Amino acid sequence: MYLIELSGDVLELGGGERPHFHPNLDVRNLPEVDIVRDLNEVPYPFEDNTFDGVLGIYVLEHLGWRNIRSVVGEIRRILKPSGKAVFLIPNTYEQCLAIVKRGWNEKSAELLFGGQDYGANAHSCGFSPRYVRELFAGFDVKILTPMPNVYLRQNGRNIPLFPACDTDMVVEAVKH
User: Is the peptide bond before 23 cis (omega within 30 degrees of 0)?
Assistant: First the structure.
């Protein structure tokens, strides 16, 4: 089990119609989105050292592989010292191994390329634990792979978010 524990000022990236924190930045113009923005476009509209935490649930894989380093740098910029970022992301390396083992089908396509039910819901970046460590250099990084059951601690309760998944991972990155 992994328990997401974020408090203070928390920014959610890509929270869409069901954010857990505000402000919620998302590319979609929805009532629950506080700031409509392409997350690939940095800098974000915040001062340095603004947030105690950043949460991204299955959002980083939708950002361009050419932009991901600058996005991680931006997360570092807006986090306060000792601030924590938590991301749930696919482990593309494990996804590829699973596809080789099981064979190709539509589920395989969705794993690798996203749901594609709206324009921004396509995967544009892939991850492995090794690549995540490289991207989050300058953070204290904890990677849980395979991803265990994930809960969010909110209002004194543990809320179940996602079941364990062999082809996903949790990334917890604390700013030095």
Answer: yes
